[in-house]
Write a structure and sequence with these properties.
The protein is of the alpha/beta class and 288 residues long. It has helices at 14-19, 79-86, 101-104, 107-113, 191-205, 221-246, 255-262, 271-286, and strands spanning 33-36, 39-43, 56-60, 68-71, 91-95, 118-119, 137-140, 143-149, 158-164, 167-173, 209-212. The radius of gyration is 20 Å and the shape is elongated. The model is unreliable at 1-20 (pLDDT under 50). Bound molecules: zinc ion (ZN).
């Protein structure tokens, strides 16, 4: 969501991959790292608070397929990254997990190099094709890709269930990250949508490999999704207890008063972010 990198450091991370030997491990900048037989990642060198080590651009291709699919080409100002993405042979489609600019910023630059359809849930980021529909199945690059609406982080967030033979992976965008927890964008994300989406991911993707848009991949979606759910529910319980102590309803509570109580032991620099999160939780409690 924020960007504090520049083109200057775009190739600096190449050494990290080499130090780790022939088999790169996350975070490996500047190399295509194979994660499953049909999914590889090109990590962009745009680390930050929201981006963790940077944006994961996923390259999907069944073994032996001449075609591939690119998911989330990355931020706007990373020429080297876009060049590396565009060099992947046989790009037939670009998919977008959600509108944030560290995922969509590179679309224009990539389209100058490869003229292929770009598809997102939002028409704004869709080119040369229709926007994505929930439960739509895309057969491409020897794979079966099912679109799942998973709003909450943003209103337009989707996940992609990728199936090849009897193997499954779930690309979760920013809905589930490889480490830490995600934020709910106050402009169109809601906690209610987010919790529903976590439930949907647990049902649909339990045993799938987790391929997130930031941070390392994990062998199974289920445990990570359940951890996210538990974390959110614990926070909601804390807010309910704080409201009880303050003797005020979710409707009348002032977010900052709740922050002072629940986040008393947290650095005050983090309070504005905490306020955003408390606001989302109070909205959720008002509806329940
Ligand atoms: Zn995002």
């Amino acid at each position: 969501m924020t960007d504090n990198g520049s083109d200057a450091g775009d190739t600096a991370g190449d050494e990290i991959a080499h130090q780790a030997g022939d088999v790169p491990v996350h975070p490996a900048y500047g190399v295509v790292r194979g994660v499953t037989p049909y999914a590889s990642v090109l990590l962009c060198n745009n680390p930050g608070n929201m981006e963790l080590d940077g944006t994961n651009t996923w390259i999907l291709r069944a073994p032996g397929s001449a075609e591939c699919v690119v998911v989330d080409p990355g931020p706007p100002n990373k020429k080297g990254h876009v060049k590396r993405v565009a060099e992947q042979p046989g790009i037939a489609l670009v998919l977008i997990t959600h509108r944030h600019f560290d995922h969509t910023g590179a679309i224009a630059r990539l389209r100058k190099r490869v003229d292929v359809p770009v598809r997102a849930r939002s028409a704004k980021y869709t080119h040369g094709a229709a926007p994505l529909a929930d439960r739509e199945v895309i057969e491409i690059a020897g794979l079966r890709i099912t679109v799942l609406y998973t709003p909450g982080h943003t209103g337009d967030s989707v996940s992609f269930l990728v199936e090849w033979e009897d193997r499954r992976a779930l690309l979760t965008g920013d809905t589930i990250l490889g480490s830490g927890t995600t934020v709910i964008d106050p402009s169109d994300g809601t906690l209610r949508d987010y919790l529903n989406s976590l439930n949907r991911i647990i049902v649909e993707g339990e045993d799938a490999v987790l391929l997130p848009a930031h941070g390392p991949d994990h062998p199974q979606v289920g445990p990570v999704a359940r951890y996210y759910k538990k974390h959110r529910e614990e926070r909601i319980d804390q807010i309910v207890a704080a409201l009880d102590d303050l003797g005020v309803s979710a409707k009348k509570a002032k977010p900052m008063k709740v922050v002072r109580k629940v986040y008393a032991d947290v650095d005050k620099k983090l309070w504005p972010a905490a306020r955003m999160s408390v606001k989302a939780q109070l909205e959720y409690l008002r509806e329940h």
